[in-house]
Structure formats: structure tokens, C-alpha cells
Design brief:
Elements: H1 3-18, E1 22-25, H2 32-44, E2 48-51, H3 55-69, E3 73-77, H4 81-84, H5 87-96, E4 100-106, E5 132-135, H6 145-161, E6 170-176, H7 187-190, E7 220-223, E8 228-232, H8 239-249, E9 253-255, H9 271-275, H10 278-283, E10 288-292, H11 299-307, E11 314-318, E12 334-336, E13 339-342, H12 346-349, H13 356-375, H14 383-393, E14 399-402, H15 406-414, E15 422-424, H16 435-448, E16 454-459, H17 460-465, E17 481-487, H18 503-511, H19 518-524, E18 529-531, H20 538-542, E19 547-553, H21 556-577
Parallel strand pairs: 1-2, 1-3, 3-4, 4-6, 5-6, 7-13, 8-9, 8-10, 10-11, 11-12, 14-15, 14-16, 16-17, 17-19, 18-19
Length: about 575
């Protein structure tokens, strides 16, 4: 066995022993040993292999798999610019604390700096975006290599998963490989013995076991006060616990859809319209803010958090993970790893007048009713109506992946709190990259774990940005996933921003109309396609096995006017109940 094949065989086996179940390959020559080892492992064990022709799509597929499964996925590419195409997914994994193991094949040292084909500087290619970088060294035919390789793989797994006294996230192993890059085929070579056994620990155990790191200390106890609010952004560490804490305290819960906390009796549906009301917020300034995850989906949220800076407001931040917390308003007074409410005398402290919570709930109900009245006034599928109906139509065991631009914001303003539905998004950096592939990966992992149907709510630009993600080979695993595409022929989010006031430049350099025929794009990828115009057809459109695409065509200008009308109606409704 040659050194490159031995290295790949041992490392893949060790990663599988650690718990690797999903691996993604972008094909290439220099990465052949890793690709062939992964293929062999997928044929013989619990590993599932995915192949994508585009490196960016491959990386985001792996990110979606890892995010939904909560365990590292591996993504492999050849040397050169192939590795550079992983960078956007690595950055998202870093910011969102998604466990990802990146294996980039490379030329050996003697070929670097010589003008050799497909050779770039891959050392620390992703900078500080990875939890750990390791240049593995070119495999050599000498004793001691197997222990090193297995130790290396188990360390990569532990660091990526957050079990090695750190925060989960991406790890980068750069692997210089010398030829031969395929298993030995000559008769003399076939019987050549490796200088030591390639086997791992007995019984399939990992080479090195890291005990899962635990948050230091007990949850922090917090005194009750009536005027508290809980704000949960994407990736909150324990959305269910925060929802329970808010309910116990009688505090309104302002939870983004992908926080996993938008549930329970105190979760608000239309809180963004309350935050937009200056009159309401003047009378509802909190004494205590608890925030978790990565809030910041709206300017209203950021305004509340910034207003707490320098004011006599206690702002307790529940860390997203060890060493990671979001404080976009720079108003945090303390950071904790967990919270427990001191509730011994809570009932006695309740005020006899209409409570703080009741006033928030009343205003939220008024805003929701006003928004629904506007939405229900037209039987055509607008973007806000689509978001509301999609969230309501999916079953309790379903997964919804939502794009980070207007779809996430429409969902946040109109999704009713509910149990069961799992909402995921790339909100680490809120980029447009790789959303088709990430949603496919998330759906695959969700359904592999016994989850139900899956849908993705994406804009037309997000679809086009990752169109290669639709190109899946016939042998590759496919999820039951409905890609719901809002097509307003461009960047709809800009229609609601300041740039729209400059018509001379707006349409070309911000709105970027493209004129793409989505049905033809679906046909090129061999995907079932359906166009949807009425909300009554949504449930039927979502049904069906495999990967399929549903297009909803909308108008950007009409959408901006509709959102303005909803905001005006909600503002008036909130003012009436203050």
C-alpha cells in the first residue's frame, strides 16, 4: 500500500470511528486517495457519501448536513482554487458554530512555488475562520505514522464538534499528497507490507476520546422584575428553555423563527410592528433584557438593544456557545452560560393593574389582526402571505429552511408561534451563498434522523446564486424537499431600503433584474416544477416525494407597497390599544 492510500484509509476509518456519518466530495485528481477511501467506507459502513461537481455547492451541502444533524460533516476537494470555493461556507460555519471538517488535498512541498499545475498557497487559507488548522505533512512509509494520523483525525473531530474544550465550528486539514494517488495495482506492490498495522483501537473505538466539554458552573439565578423582555435570535443555545423561562416570568418573548424559541403562550407573532411603534416603545421600556443567539433580523430589534446601552437597563446575554455571544448594540451588562429564574415570591410581586405582559400580548394581537386583514384582502399569493401560509401548512415534524433576506423577514413578521416546526437559516453571516445546497443538506440530515417533510423558502437570486446545487447525479441521495422560490425578478429587499429613492441607478445596480425562466432552469436540472398563484394550492404543491420546485411569481414594487400598507395598518392598530 502506498503512503497516500494508507493515509486516506486510516484517516477516514478513524473519522468514522469518531462518529462521521456524512461526507461530501467535489471530484479532483489530487484528492483521489481521500475520495476513494470515503467511497469504500460508504460501501461498507454507516457513512453516507454525497458528490457535487461544484465546490461551493459541496461545501454548503456539508454545512447543511452538519447544521441539521448537530455533528461534523466532512467536505473534500482537490488542490488549487477548488479549496478557495469552500471559503464562504467555512466563514458561515465559523460564525454560526457549525461543526465542519474541511479536507483540502494539496501538492507536496517540493512542487510548491515551482509553477506546478493547480498549486496555490493553501496554508491557513481560511485564516481565523477555523477553530484549528493543520498542515498534515506528506504521508511517509515509516513507523509511527498510523498513530499520528489517527490522533490527528480524532483531534479534528473533537475540535470541530466542540468537545475539546472549545466551541463547535470548522476545522481545516490541508493534506499534501504524493503520487501514486490510487491503490497499488502491480503484483509486486500488492503484497508490500506497511511497516506497522493500520488498525485502530479494538472494538471500533476512537483513537482518542474527548469528554464533552460542559459549561462552567450552575445556571445564573436572576431576580424577577415585571418589566422584562426576552429576545431570541438565530442559533439560541436552548430555545425551549428560554421560552419556558419567559412564560414563568410573565415576560414577552420576541423570538426570531430560526431561534427554536418561537413557541408557547408568551411568544409574539408581530413583535416587529410593536418595536417599530415609537409610542408603544416609549411606554414599554424594559428594565431587563435577556438576549440569546444572534438577534438582529430587524432594525427594531437593534434599536431596542442599542437603547439599553448607557441606560439603567440590565442586559443579560445568554452565550450562544463557549466564548461566543452576540452583542450588536454593545449594551450587554453580563454574559452567562445559562439562566434560572428566582421565582419564590413571583406571584406576590404581580401588579393588580393590567400587567406588563398583558399589554404586550394585546398590542401583538392587534398588530397580527391588522396584518392578517390586509393579507387576506387579496387571494393572490404575496410574499408575506406565502411566508405566513407556508409556516402554518408544514407538519409538526417538518423542517423549513429560510433564506436570509426578505423570506426570513417576512416569516419573522407573520409566522404564528407554534411547536414542532424546525426552522433553520444561514444567519451566521446572512449571506446569499449556497442556500440551495445547504437546504438540501439540512433536509437529508433531518430525514435521516427520522424527521418529516422539508421545504425551503428562497428568493430567485438565492436560487440563481446556487443553481449548480440543483445538479445532482442520479446515484446521489436526494431528500423529500420542496424548494419554494419567490421570483420577483431581482433583489426585492432593496425596494424597502434607502437605495430605492434613487431611480436612475436603482434598477440596474441594486434590483438587478435577470429575466431567468425558472421553469426552464428546473427542467435543465430534471426537477419537477409547478407554478403557484393561489394560497389554496400550497399544501398540494408541498406534497410529493423527492426534490421538486414551486415558483411563486411576485412584483417587487407591489410587494414594497403591500409591506408599507401592512406596517401602516399595524401602527394604527397598536396605537389604538396603547
Amino acid at each position: 500500500m502506498n503512503p497516500s492510500t494508507a493515509f486516506a484509509t486510516v484517516v477516514v476509518d478513524e473519522l468514522v470511528r469518531c462518529g462521521l456519518r456524512e461526507a461530501v466530495i467535489a471530484p479532483g485528481s489530487r484528492s483521489a486517495p481521500l475520495a476513494m477511501a470515503l467511497h469504500a467506507a460508504s460501501s461498507a459502513g454507516p457513512l453516507r457519501l454525497h458528490v457535487r461537481i461544484d465546490e461551493r455547492s459541496a461545501a454548503f451541502l456539508a454545512l447543511g448536513l452538519a447544521k441539521a444533524a448537530g455533528r461534523p460533516a466532512v467536505v473534500v476537494c482537490t488542490s488549487g482554487t477548488a479549496a478557495a470555493h469552500f471559503h464562504a461556507a467555512v466563514i458561515e460555519a465559523d460564525e454560526a458554530c457549525v461543526p465542519l471538517i474541511v479536507l483540502t488535498a494539496d501538492r507536496p512541498p517540493e512542487l510548491r512555488g515551482t509553477g506546478a499545475n493547480q498549486t496555490i498557497d493553501q496554508i491557513k487559507l481560511y485564516g481565523n475562520a477555523v477553530r484549528w488548522f493543520c498542515e498534515t505533512g506528506a504521508p511517509e512509509d515509516r513507523p509511527g505514522q498510523v498513530g499520528y494520523w489517527r490522533s490527528l483525525a480524532s483531534r479534528a473531530w473533537a475540535v470541530s464538534s466542540g468537545n475539546a474544550l472549545g466551541t463547535a465550528g470548522p476545522v481545516h486539514l490541508n493534506v499534501p499528497l504524493r503520487e501514486p494517488l490510487v491503490p497499488d495495482s502491480g503484483e509486486p506492490e500488492r503484497g508490500r507490507a506497511w511497516p506497522e498495522p493500520l488498525d485502530g483501537r479494538p472494538g471500533g473505538a476512537p483513537w482518542t476520546v474527548f469528554s464533552p466539554a460542559r459549561a462552567a458552573g450552575e445556571p445564573t439565578e436572576i431576580d424577577w422584575t415585571e418589566r422584562g423582555i426576552v429576545i431570541c435570535g438565530d442559533g439560541a443555545a436552548d430555545g425551549g428553555a428560554l421560552a419556558s423561562l419567559a412564560a414563568a416570568a410573565g415576560w414577552p418573548l420576541l423570538a426570531e423563527p430560526s431561534s427554536a424559541a418561537r413557541r408557547g403562550p408568551v411568544a409574539l407573532c408581530s413583535y416587529q410592528y410593536l418595536l417599530d411603534s415609537a409610542r408603544f416603545m416609549d411606554r414599554h421600556r424594559p428594565d431587563l433584557i435577556i438576549s440569546a443567539g444572534r438577534p438582529g433580523l430587524s432594525r427594531g430589534q437593534l434599536s431596542v438593544l442599542r437603547a439599553a446601552s448607557g441606560a439603567s437597563v440590565r442586559h443579560v446575554i445568554v452565550a450562544q456557545a463557549r466564548g461566543r455571544w452576540a452583542d450588536p448594540g454593545r449594551s450587554g451588562t453580563e454574559v452567562v452560560t445559562g439562566l434560572r429564574l428566582r421565582t419564590a415570591d413571583l406571584p406576590r410581586r404581580r401588579s393588580p393593574r393590567p400587567s406588563w405582559l398583558e399589554s404586550w400580548l394585546a398590542a401583538d394581537a392587534a398588530a397580527s389582526a391588522a396584518a392578517n386583514a390586509v393579507l387576506d384582502g387579496d387571494d393572490e399569493l404575496s410574499e408575506p402571505l406565502l411566508a405566513r401560509e407556508l409556516a402554518a401548512a408544514l407538519s409538526a415534524d417538518a423542517l423549513l429552511w429560510v433564506a436570509s433576506s426578505m423570506p426570513a423577514r417576512d416569516l419573522d413578521r407573520h409566522m404564528a408561534p407554534r411547536d414542532g416546526l424546525r426552522v433553520l437559516a444561514n444567519r451566521g453571516t446572512s449571506g446569499i451563498d449556497g442556500l440551495v445546497s445547504a437546504s438540501i443538506g439540512a433536509a437529508l440530515a433531518h430525514q435521516a434522523a427520522g424527521g418529516g417533510p422539508a421545504a425551503a423558502l428562497l428568493g430567485d437570486l438565492a436560487l440563481l446564486h446556487d443553481a449548480p446545487g440543483l445538479l445532482i447525479g442520479p446515484a446521489e441521495p436526494r431528500p423529500d424537499l420542496c424548494l419554494v422560490i419567490v421570483n420577483n425578478d431581482g433583489g426585492g429587499i432593496f425596494s424597502g431600503l434607502e437605495q430605492a429613492a434613487f431611480p436612475d441607478s436603482f434598477e440596474r445596480v441594486f434590483a438587478t433584474p435577470h429575466g431567468t425562466n425558472i421553469e426552464q432552469l428546473a427542467g435543465a436540472a430534471g426537477l419537477p416544477y409547478r407554478r403557484l398563484d393561489k394560497p389554496l394550492g400550497l399544501r398540494a404543491a408541498l406534497a410529493g416525494p423527492g426534490l421538486h420546485l414551486v415558483e411563486v411569481q411576485t412584483d417587487r414594487s407591489a410587494g414594497a407597497k403591500l409591506r408599507a400598507a401592512i406596517a401602516q395598518a399595524c401602527s394604527a392598530a397598536v396605537d389604538r390599544v396603547i
